[in-house]
Amino acid sequence: MKMASYEDKSVKPPNGYWRWGECRANGASVLIERRAVWVNSALMVALVFAAIAYLSLGSLTLMPREVIMALAGQGDMMTGFMVQELRLPRLVAACLTGGAFALAGILMQTLARNRLATPGIIGIDNGATAFAVASVVGMSVSIAPSTMALTGAVTAAVLTFGLAAGSGTQGYRFIVAGIGVGAVFGAITQLLLARVAIDTANAAYPWTVGSLNARSGGSVHLLGVGLAVGFVTALALARSLTILRFSEATANGLGVNAKVRRIQILLLSVVLTALAVAVAGPVGMVGLIGPEIARALSTPRHVPVVAATLAGALVMVLADLMGRTLLAPIELPVGIVTAIIGGPWLLWILMRPQRSHA
Questions:
Q1: Which of 53, 63, 212, 297 is 20 to 30 A from 184, comparing alpha carbons?
Q2: pLDDT of 313-341, one tens digit each?
């Protein structure tokens, strides 16, 4: 959004923008990008329809009208239990984790100025997973997986940043260092699982592939708070995110302290990833697919923070719905579904010409 002068009412807003509001105190109005409004609205509508389908389909198929009645506290007891107690909490977890993964992804991609620099690809997911699994199978004292996931994500980020010394968060050295760190933490996870009893390993298995079956109510609530704070913070940093796509000298010249902003954005991405991993495990491809959908639909003038968050939630909901229904009664973990979808998507990104914006 931009500020326009109130004094000259005859000046039309730039092409592609609406002018909203006129403040007599400081003589300014707000410019709203039209395409962003339409894209965000379309993604929100798509998410609502996907949510209704998610609540309707499963071992017991319900009509949309029955779902709406159950959400309103009406209808028979069995339908209300199925919708409100079984499917709705999982739907909320899918929306929150998908939104958090995608928001962390677009923040990291903007920070590194590289479309491949998602938390999953640069090792943050694996770091969070290794520490979360350790809290379940490898420690004599039980510590909350969400706390351990945050510790692991921070550790992986610090190691990646340290190994990429000299290049900061830019360039392929940062990505290669992250891949190496992720491989090490992945090996640690497998070692932990190999050294425990089979029942304990089965309990930790969902953490390794990404699944919403192992969600914890406390972790979901913590993720909800974290995503809300992170989303508002990302919106507040929207102008800085756009400017950081340019060189550090340009950013500093435009009044943005590039070093401070990069640290803030990196921390925000790490926290969002850790909280999402604490709920669903490493569902890394959502952080790649969500931002790509948002960028494909949006203009390159701004970083599509809102669109990426909504697209990530939509991808997660649809992926978990497919995992629950495609091979029913066998259920596929959502991490496997997103990997099947995200693998070809990653190849397409690698083979497609690089665009000028992050």
A1: 212
A2: 999 999 999 999 988 788 888 988 998 88
Q: How far is CA 34 from the centre of its chain?
A: 24
Specify whether the CB–CB gap between 134 and 151 falls below 8 A: no
Helices (H), the chain: 34-56, 64-71, 77-80, 88-112, 124-133, 145-163, 172-194, 198-209, 217-236, 238-243, 248-253, 258-280, 286-297, 305-325, 334-351
Residue 12: name the closest of 29, 35, 37, 26 by CA: 29
Secondary structure (3-state) at 140: coil
Kindly write down the DSSP assignment for every residue of 16-63, as one continuous string: TEEEEEEETTTTEEEEEEHHHHHHHHHHHHHHHHHHHHHHH-SSS---
The class (CATH top level) of 2-73+84-351 is: mainly alpha
Instruction: Please name the residue that has the structure tokens 């508002």.
Output: 232
pLDDT tens, residue by residue, 203-239: 777 777 888 886 777 889 999 999 999 999 999 998 8
**Which DSSP letter does residue 299 get?**
-
The rounded distance, in Å, linking the Cα atoms of 110 and 295 is: 12
